[in-house]
Specification:
The chain is an alpha/beta fold. The protein has 13 helices and twelve strands. The strands form two sheets. Strands 7-6-5-4-3-2-1-8-9-10 form a ten-stranded mixed β-sheet. It has a two-stranded antiparallel ribbon with strand order 11-12. Its cofactor is [4Fe-4S] cluster. InterPro entries: 4Fe4S-binding_SPASM_dom, Aldolase_TIM, Elp3/MiaA/NifB-like_rSAM, PqqE-like, Radical_SAM_PqqE_MftC-like, rSAM, rSAM_sf.
Length: about 350
């Protein structure tokens, strides 16, 4: 596997107008921006010397930064594509036109098919209506968007309805997130989807994806899915061909943290992915390329033989890899087995 940065999440602000129960940053309007426009452009400049990743501007709520489109323009000037990860609540017709001019693709967060479910997750009444309105405005403005949906026990019964709503709204893709307990999600660890339900949800997703021809669908932070697809396809004699979104990492492997993707936090801290607990360094002090090439964490994530014995010897190590962030969150060791692993040597546990 060739390691090169293909996708970068850049958290340009910790400020947010919502108070989501699962926020990795514990974002709020009480926090302040740390990185200046000059800081951000210097970081992008350095990265462009080696890589041309898709850069996703995230937060917090990135639309709260007045210079968000200036940042996007600078990234474009370096030959990179720009995504915008927003909760959608601030988007109106005028802002949609600006987004169309400066952004390549938008991701909206939608955690339920009704206001009751979504607003309970986002802790702001009216959030659902605002996000649905944003989707409609973006579609009418011909702005491509995807929908990201995060699930716990409190909304897992609404997974299928949320997928159907994303499709109805005109999303180019629907990403189903299996939450890792970091940030505020640590406080709701007991209500995260358990291993048994996780497996059943991934089975449902596989069947759904077999029949889905209109939009791209993909479970996220669920690397075991890549093993499940192979096992299910072979056991049932099904031909399965994965489609790829033009703004994705290519879908070559389950966990690609520190291998094809990276995350830069609002204070300059660099992580292998946005859910990772540990910092690999600080871009303001160490430089991104130095961290990418020389960080001990990044090096170990690329050396699959350094993983726990079950992972390292598994036939799916190059396909799944286990969620390294989840392993760390549960066991304090990012090289440990993913606690949600239900595959060993290509055989389902308990079957």
């Amino acid at each position: 596997m060739e390691f090169g940065l293909k996708w970068l999440a850049f958290e340009i602000t910790p400020r947010c107008n919502l108070n989501c129960i699962h926020c990795r940053t514990s974002a709020s309007m009480n926090l302040e921006d740390r990185l200046s426009f000059e800081d951000i452009t210097n970081i992008i400049e350095e990265i462009s010397e080696q890589f041309k990743p898709v850069v996703v501007l995230t937060g917090g709520e990135p639309l709260l930064r007045e210079d968000v489109f200036d940042i996007a323009d600078f990234i474009h000037s370096k030959g990179m594509r720009v995504g915008l990860a927003t909760n959608g609540t601030l988007i109106d017709e005028g802002l949609a036109l600006k987004i169309k001019k400066h952004i390549d693709i938008v991701s909206l967060s939608l955690d339920g098919s009704t206001a009751e479910v979504h607003d309970d997750f986002r802790k702001v009444k009216g959030a659902f209506d605002a996000t649905v309105r944003a989707a409609n405005i973006l579609r009418e403005t011909s702005v491509e968007f995807i929908i990201n949906s995060s699930f716990t026990k409190r909304n897992q019964s609404d997974i299928e309805n949320t997928y159907r709503l994303a499709k109805f709204l005109g999303a180019k893709a629907w990403y189903m997130f299996m939450i890792v307990p970091t940030g505020r999600a640590e406080e709701i660890r007991e209500e995260l989807i358990d291993k048994e339900n996780y497996k059943e949800i991934l089975k449902w997703h596989f069947q759904m994806e077999l029949n889905e021809k209109d939009i791209l669908v993909r479970p996220t932070c669920a690397p075991e899915y890549y093993a499940l697809v192979d096992i299910e396809s072979k056991s049932k004699g099904i031909g399965f061909k994965r489609r790829t979104l033009k703004f994705s990492t290519g879908g070559a492997k389950g966990c690609v943290a520190g291998q094809l993707i990276a995350f830069i936090g609002f204070d300059g801290r660099v992580k292998p992915c946005s859910y990772f607990l540990r910092d690999a360094g600080n871009v303001l002090e160490d430089g991104f390329l130095n961290i990418w090439y020389n960080s001990d964490i990044f090096k170990k994530l690329r050396d699959f033989s350094s993983y726990n014995k079950k992972c390292a010897s598994c036939r799916y190590i190059n396909v799944c890899g286990g969620c390294r962030a989840r392993a760390d969150a549960y066991f304090g060791d990012y090289l440990a087995i993913d606690p949600y692993c239900f595959v060993e040597g290509g055989v389902y546990e308990g079957e």
